[in-house]
Amino acid sequence: MKIDLIDAWRAPGGSAVPLAAADQADWLSASGAGLGGLLVPFTVYCMDLVGLVALLVSLVAVVVSARLAITQNSMQKHANTIPSMDLLLGEFRSEEFWRSYNYVCTELADQDSGRGIAGLPAEARSHVYSVCYLFQHLGDLVRLGVVDERAILSTLRFRVIQVWAAVEPFVVQERRVNPAAGPNTLRLLEAFAARAEILPAESYSNAIEVWLSRPMR
After folding, report:
1. What local confidence, expressed as pLDDT, does residue 27 receive?
2. In the chain, helix, strand, coil percent, each to 5?
3. What string of H, E and C letters represents the secondary structure of the chain?
4. Mean pLDDT of the residues in the chain
5. C-beta of residue 88 within 8 angstroms of C-beta of residue 138
6. What is the pLDDT of residues 6-22, one digit of tens each?
7. pLDDT at 59 over 50
8. Closest among 89, 76, 204, 199 to 146, alpha carbons compared
9. Can you say how many angstroms the Cα of residue 167 is from the centroid of all Cα atoms in its chain?
10. pLDDT tens digits for range 183-204
């Protein structure tokens, strides 16, 4: 009789003994059960491992996405700040602006505030509008989150406070005597100055010191 390897059982003495059909079925069943007993927990382990890896990959993707969003938001704020600062610097380079600014801060107090801004002489009124609405425009950009508040205020803190202190009596009276102006005339400038007051006076100097302490790129 021909004996296949899977159909034979090696006896203790080394001779091959044919297996009956029933014995073959029992041997194959036992072998399959033993292999299955090993494969089932191994398969479960692999599935758990794959699930864990997928979870870790998902968490890394979420963290990276959040980091990129924060970085992009910061870059966008800086990108928005640059044109506004360029506009401001353009005005500050203007001799006309400085003439208006100096007038508001040093000569406006000589005028009577009783009739508000509208009651000022034409030249004085022009100086007030030129300076106040420039700073109010910057305050509005800060309020809307278009530009970085600390970057703007650390640079302009003193000037915003100085301008508001000079024009406040005229603005308050303007709100009272000029119905066309309304109660919110230059309200954003007032709020901008209030925010500037919150910022420490040394904030600009501190910002420069931080910059000077950075290693050269």
Report:
1. 44
2. 75, 5, 20
3. CCCCHHHEEECCCCCEEECCHHHHHHHHHHHHHHHHHHHHHHHHHHHHHHHHHHHHHHHHHHHHHHHHHHHHHHHHHHHHHHHHHHHHHHHHCCHHHHHHHHHHHHCHHHCCCCCCCCCCCHHHHHHHHHHHHHHHHHHHHHHCCCCCHHHHHHHHHHHHHHHHHHHHHHHHHHHHHCCCCCCCCCHHHHHHHHHHHHCCCCHHHHHHHHHHHCCCC
4. 76
5. yes
6. 444 444 454 444 545 55
7. yes
8. 76
9. 35
10. 899 999 999 999 999 988 887 7
- Give dist(CA 72, CA 50) in Å, integer: 33
CA distance linking residue 128 with residue 105, whole number of Å = 10
Helix (H) or strand (E) segment spanning residue 122: helix 122-143
pLDDT in tens, 123-168: 999 999 999 999 998 898 888 888 788 888 888 899 999 999 999 9
Query: Cα-flanking dihedrals φ and ψ of residue 13, to 5°?
Result: -80, -5
The residue type of 179 is P
Cα–Cα dist 72/69, whole Å: 5
214 and 200 in contact (C-beta within 8 Å)?
Answer: no
Report the length, in residues, of the chain.
217
Looking up tokens 């401001």, which residue turns up? 88
Residue entry with tokens 């382990």: 45
The one-letter amino acid at 7: D
